[in-house]
Amino acid sequence: MTISTSVAKLAMISLDCADAGASAAFWSEVLGWKIGASGEGYAMIVGDGPAVGFGTVPDYVAPAWPNEHGSKQFHFDLAVDDLDAAQTRCVELGATVPSEQPGETWRVLLDPAGHPFCLTKAENWG
């Protein structure tokens, strides 16, 4: 479906976390994007698509995974060529792999701030 008019253009997605600099460093490495801004309590990465911002929130609580309601609040789906290699690299960068997984073609990982994100084979995206 094509929308003929728009009110706005998505410029940035922002995520709360315990340490903005650490989250930006992790996602910069995972996505291969540059850290475009970093300061006290805030950081941003820029690359292909909207920027991703990170804000340090006092007493931050990570989303639960698994969640009894199936909710992830918000997450990234990342297309990769090799699930095992991508998972290994993300873990080296600080991600963790929860024991509960949705199936064979997707892997759920948690970033250092506890946000769930998914890896899937790039071929699954057409």
From TrEMBL:
Gene3D superfamilies: 2,3-Dihydroxybiphenyl 1,2-Dioxygenase, domain 1 (3.10.180.10). Coiled coil: none annotated. Residues 9-126 form the VOC domain. This is VOC family protein. It comes from Gordonia amicalis.
